[in-house]
Design a protein that fits this description.
By secondary structure, this protein is mainly beta. It contains five helices and 34 strands.
């Protein structure tokens, strides 16, 4: 892995002086405010559970992906939830646009729809194939994965989703699979019940949107229909397009234009008294000509190519809580994911010898991943006078097929040795227990055992089948002292298997090498410690304020990386080796407040990372960042408005604190940036009654000061000022 962190932040504030102390100062001030203002009022006014909840803030949102359902602030793990209202308010063009307020989560690569990947706590980068599998991404439980040279890893449209959960850290490996070194991102698609009002059986929702940078359009049609008490359906179709966008100084980012169709069909059926059966299918399709070959960042050397990208996801699931049987709370699902990229008419660059005659990269080709998955999970419950226990256990299997086909200018098939074909089979069993005593102490031990087998395509010379097992144990604890203060911590170990690419690749853009059959698993030991504060009736009756702080230390060894001994040309060496050992540590702070006429959210992320063998800073670590939202509400006018800001420090490595290309030896690297602050405003109007009931309008301006800046993990400068507007009308019957 690459990375780095010394505080060096000219221009915005002295993060070097303040970063380590910021969380302590914030939490100390908050503790004083909570104890001084809220404890007496809370004890006096909060006489039942509903009153204790007060206003529902972002830290009181329900978490469903970490085991037994609980709200975010009561989860002994760093978790965040993005709800439908957040997505609508952001008016995102790409999936990456929805994550800009989540601490510790960044988008890596570029703002192109073909060039985005995810980064959590410094893990995840698009330029390196060995980042795959370190973050697990799911759609309604179906694992999504794609890796290709100079391409992003997730292709979809934000209009398909109503909810995104982010589980940060390796503790998520218990339920989702070994190797989640960074964490898990769960996307949830929309349901018919989200749109059908009480007393009605159907709804039609029409939506249109426009953004000025550059001429971005969205058209969406959604139909939800309830046939009877046992069956309902949802059908949604979306079309989105945009021209190449401009940065703050007016520079056009080439080949960032696109047009894409997406759709969702879902049926939900009641089975018996409590069972629910869901069938869903979603697809994203974009056919773009003359796109930059390098989608993770502008590199004209590679020329252009015509690309047709199709992503499909199909799921069938059944769940039944069996509320009259403490031994059963069953969830079963089977899913299919298929992502293909068809490339034709690559221009290459003859000046550098980049043509189909010299490199298969520039020949007509198709890359693909198919993943079949089957999951079974059950929860058994025991209860006593002042305790309860939930035991969750299950089995997961996934079968992935990686394909790559290419032909030369005469139509003859060619091998693609840098994108090796093969199959990846994983089977895992897991158990997680959750013991709750006196509604104060929660203990969550868990463990997972995975078996893994890689099988290469017969055409890969020198490759052979490999298999291994991985063990991922953890224990987490949460203790609530009173209604105001709680502490939590966890210890988790996980192991990541070598991938098809790392094991069977035999070439890169400049060299040839042997398969890497002796690779061993990456291993991560992660430690977290934090506290949570809650207060109610602080400034007015019914308001609510929460703060959650998490410190973490992640020690990763046997990291898999490209063999540094490789030279240009032929090498009698493996392409990948286990050499690195890294440590990543830091803290995340989340704060949320909500009242009748005012709300505020803030997130702060402080992450450090170094290669423990060399002492070099990791180049996958995003700079320290403070994000916040200040908003107002006018309920009598159905208006919500506010201001969002991000204040970002310079890179960890002072040598990478730059607004332009770096000096040698890093002259070709795009890992550089400067401190910046960027500001957005928004306004939402959702009439609840009267003649305009059913309408919804969102207006916003992103980067209102037209700031020229570049994200450290992005290979291109960011978008300049962008005006956004969307209008939706829902009709019910």
């Amino acid at each position: 892995m690459p990375a780095r962190i010394e505080m060096h932040t000219p221009g915005v504030w002295d993060m070097g002086l303040a970063a380590r102390d910021w969380a302590a100062l914030m939490s100390g001030a908050a503790m004083t405010a909570f104890v001084g203002m809220g404890t007496a009022k809370a004890q006096e006014a909060q006489t039942n559970d509903e009153e204790k909840q007060g206003r529902v803030t972002t830290l009181q949102r329900l978490i469903v992906g970490a085991g037994v359902e609980k709200i975010a602030i009561d989860t002994p793990q760093a978790v965040s939830v993005i709800e439908q209202e957040d997505i609508d308010r952001a008016q995102p063009t790409t999936i990456g646009d929805v994550f800009d307020q989540i601490p510790g989560v960044n988008v890596s690569g570029s703002d192109r729809v073909f060039g985005e990947t995810f980064n959590i706590r410094g893990i995840g980068a698009p330029e390196s194939a060995n980042e795959e599998g370190r973050i697990i991404v799911t759609v309604d439980g179906a694992i999504k994965f794609f890796e290709q040279y100079r391409m992003g890893g997730f292709f979809s449209d934000p209009e398909l989703y109503k909810r995104v959960e982010v589980l940060r850290g390796p503790a998520s490996s218990t339920l989702y699979g070994s190797g989640a070194l960074g964490g898990v991102i769960n996307f949830t698609t929309k349901d018919a019940a989200d749109f059908i009002a009480d007393g009605q059986n159907g709804a039609l929702r029409l939506k249109g949107g426009y953004n000025s940078n550059k001429n971005g359009w969205l058209g969406s049609v959604l139909l939800a229909q309830r046939l009877n008490e046992s069956a309902e359906f949802l059908f949604e179709g979306n079309y989105r397009r945009a021209d190449s966008y401009f940065t703050g100084d007016g520079t056009e980012v080439p080949s960032s234009d696109f047009d894409a169709w997406s759709g969702l069909a879902k049926g939900t059926f009641k089975v018996g008294d409590e069972g629910t059966l869901r069938l869903s299918y979603s697809q994203w399709d974009s056919d773009a000509d003359d796109q930059d070959y390098a989608q993770v960042g502008t590199q004209s050397t590679f020329g252009t190519v015509d690309r047709h990208v199709i992503d499909k996801t199909g799921i069938i699931s059944y769940e039944n809580p069996f509320s009259d049987n403490d031994w059963l709370d069953l969830k079963v699902s089977a899913s299919f994911s298929d992502t293909t990229v068809d490339q034709t008419d690559a221009s290459g660059n003859p000046m550098f010898g980049l043509t189909c005659a010299t490199s298969v990269l520039f020949c007509d080709s198709e890359y693909g991943y198919q993943t079949w998955q089957f999951n079974v999970q059950n929860t058994t419950e025991w209860q006593g006078d002042n305790w309860e226990n939930f035991l969750t256990y299950g089995w997961q299997s996934a079968y992935q097929i990686r394909t790559a086909d290419a032909v030369d200018v005469f139509g003859n098939p060619l091998p693609i040795t840098f994108h090796p074909e093969g199959t990846d089979v994983k089977t895992g069993i897991f158990v997680q227990d959750e013991f709750v005593w006196d509604e104060r102490l929660t203990l969550i031990p868990g463990m997972r055992l995975d078996w893994h087998e890689l099988s290469p395509e017969d055409s890969i010379i020198g490759a052979e089948e490999t298999d291994d097992t991985a063990f991922s144990p953890k224990i987490a604890a949460y203790y609530r002292f009173n209604e105001t203060f709680a502490v939590f911590g966890s210890v988790a170990h996980t192991e990541r298997f070598p991938t098809l690419d790392e094991t069977f690749s035999t070439s890169s853009s400049s060299s040839f090498f042997n398969p890497s059959l002796d690779l061993i698993k990456e291993q991560s030991n992660n430690f977290e410690l934090g506290f949570a504060l809650s207060g109610y009736d602080l400034a007015q009756s019914g308001d609510s304020l929460q703060l959650k702080t998490t410190g973490f230390y992640n020690d990763i060894k046997d990291l898999i990386t490209r063999n540094p001994a490789l030279v240009s040309g032929f090498n009698d060496l493996p392409g990948y080796v286990n050499i690195n050992r890294a440590e990543i540590y830091g803290a995340e702070v989340e704060l949320a407040y909500d009242a009748d006429y005012f709300f505020a959210n803030a997130g702060y992320s402080y992450v450090q990372g170094k290669d423990k063998d060399t002492g070099n800073y990791l180049t996958t670590i995003a700079p320290h960042e403070l994000s916040f939202t200040l908003g107002g509400k006018l309920p009598e006018h159905d208006l919500v408005f506010g201001w969002k800001a991000r204040v970002v420090s310079g890179p960890q490595d002072p040598d990478r604190d730059s607004s332009g290309p770096l000096p040698p030896p890093n002259a070709s690297s795009t890992r550089f940036s400067e401190a910046f602050d960027v500001h957005d405003i928004f306004l939402t109007w959702t009439p609840q009654d009267g003649e305009f009931k059913g309408w919804e309008a969102n207006l916003g301006v992103d980067n209102i000061f037209d700031k020229q800046y570049k994200e450290f993990l992005s290979n291109d400068p960011a978008k300049g000022r962008t005006f956004k507007v969307s209008l939706a009308k829902q009709i019910g019957w």
